[in-house]
Amino acid sequence: MHTALSVNINKIAWLRNARNGDQPNVGTASKKIITAGAAGITVHPRPDQRHIRPDDVYQLSSITNSFNVEYNIEGNPTTGSQVNGYPGFMRLVRDTRPTQCTLVPDTSTQLTSDHGWNLRESKQMETVSLFVNELHDLGCRVSIFVDPDPEIVSLARQTQTDRVELFTGPWATAVESFGIESSEATQCLAKYVEAANTAHEIGLGVNAGHDLNLQNLTEFCRAVDVAEVSIGHALVADALDHGLESVVQKYLDAIKRGCQPRAG
Fold first, then answer.
1. What is the number of other CB atoms lying within 10 angstroms of the CB of residue 172?
2. Would the pLDDT of 107 be above 80?
């Protein structure tokens, strides 16, 4: 079993957007992530442009193509163009034709993804199926965001999607609240195992994402057969934690050099 890592760079763009300019540069960061061994880059271009902007989507398409790694664009396919210049989710996908498109039932103002598609509702089933068909025509692999519910996973097969992405928020919460060896975490993990097994039995691939981190990732990958995990917030936070000491030292060295008398 091999699980690929796709790094979500939304938070890098969010930090850049806190100031005018292009630092940190999402293109440079993506190249470093790919060079470090990640199998792909994920973005979720929200209509309010709080982090990833349309021009980022196009730039990252070029970068991932040049490095021959996967590009995953996730979002709500029903989100149309906005007065702020956002061209609409499907317009971005049609223009860039990413390796994978992950369909997520987010609202326009939602802080982060917190639930999957409810395919028991005929309207959601119809909507998802319609866009899966169009995305296949564009040559994209399609994944749909779902809760770890075997019935929903079974229904996902009717949409003709290639994969399901299991929403791992509940797993992360169980580990954080009760500990990874707790009965609560064990019971929660069993739901993901069942959902993934259901998917494999009906020919669907399995991705996973949301709040996965260094504390809960190993056990999840050990128990659940997933093709890909998408991780962003925790990875960027850990990059800060693990890199701060060396960067502070670089700045101290720069100050020290500046305070020394000029030679000669």
1. 21
2. no
Residues recognised as catalytic: 44, 74, 210
Domain ranges across the chain: 4-259
pTM above 0.90, yes or no: yes
State yes or no: pLDDT of 154 exceeds 70: yes
Q: Is the pLDDT of residue 262 over 90?
A: no
Q: Which CATH class is domain 4-259?
A: alpha beta
Write a three-state SS string for the chain.
Answer: CCCEEEEECHHHHHHHHCCCCCCCCHHHHHHHHHHCCCCEEEECCCCCCCCCCHHHHHHHHHHHHHHCCEEEEEECCCCCCCCCCCCCHHHHHHHHCCCEEEECCCCCCCCCCCCCCCCCCHHHHHHHHHHHHHHHHCCCEEEEEECCCHHHHHHHHHHCCCEEEEECHHHHHHHHHHCCCCHHHHHHHHHHHHHHHHHHHCCCEEEEECCCCCCCHHHHHHHCCCCEEEECHHHHHHHHHHHHHHHHHHHHHHHHHHHCCCCC
